[in-house]
Amino acid sequence: MRHGRPDIDESSTMPSTTFPTWLDAYREASLVADAPPDDSRAIACKASMIVCSDLRRSIESAHRLLPERSPEIDSLFAEMSMPWGPVPLLRLSARAWATLFRLAWLAGYARNAEENRSQGLIRAERAADKLIQMSEQGGTVLFVGHGVFNRFVAAALRRKGWQGPTDPGRKHWCYARYEKRA
Fold it and tell me: Is residue 120 part of a domain?
């Protein structure tokens, strides 16, 4: 499941050199005040265990979904690293910079990023392995993660023989179910 909507402005324009400051604020942003949709809560209630990244929006989402249960928090499940670099004379919205730099990262650009695409793929494989191990130990696992990372984990699960959609969804609180093929 993707986390809830962060409480941060994505529309104000800025130069690329300001984007890292915005990105730090995004990493620390709490969620807007709305509640998770009923269907997302229903899915969460069926889970034997819940795991999330160590980023605030993921932790808060897990707590909003199941306030009575403590999630396992693990940095392994954090969003893919975001590069950035100076782009002179151009001012874009934070959302536009994020899209531009994410596309560049997918194409191999990793300047100022903590991991490149190959390293991110390896981490997603490790995350999928951990989710599989958790499910083998205790049943249904709810993973509350992040948009891009969720897609990489979904692809890894499918490569490992699990069935589910190729795209787990891009909207906040959206989810997808993956099951081991019989």
Answer: yes
In this structure, what DSSP letter does residue 49 have? E
Q: State residue 99's pLDDT score.
A: 97
| pLDDT, tens only, 79-135 | 999 999 999 999 999 999 999 999 999 999 999 999 999 999 999 999 999 999 999
Residue 6 lies in a domain: no
- Give me the pLDDT at residue 83, please: 97
Please report which confidence band the pLDDT of residue 15 belongs to, taking 50, 70 and 90 as the band edges: very high
CATH number at residue 54: 3.40.50
- Residue matched to tokens 């989710």: 131
Nearest to 101 by CA among 80, 73, 128: 80
Amino acid at 115: E
- Closest CA relative to residue 180, chosen from 141, 123, 147, 125: 141
d(CA 4, CA 31): 6
In Å, what is the CA distance from 91 to each residue of 34, 70, 107, 128?
31, 41, 22, 37
Residue 95: inside a domain = yes
Domain hosting 58: range is: 13-180
Considering the domain boundaries, does residue 56 fall inside one?
yes
**Phi/psi at 12 (5° precision):** -70, 145
Please tell me the total count of domains within the chain: 1
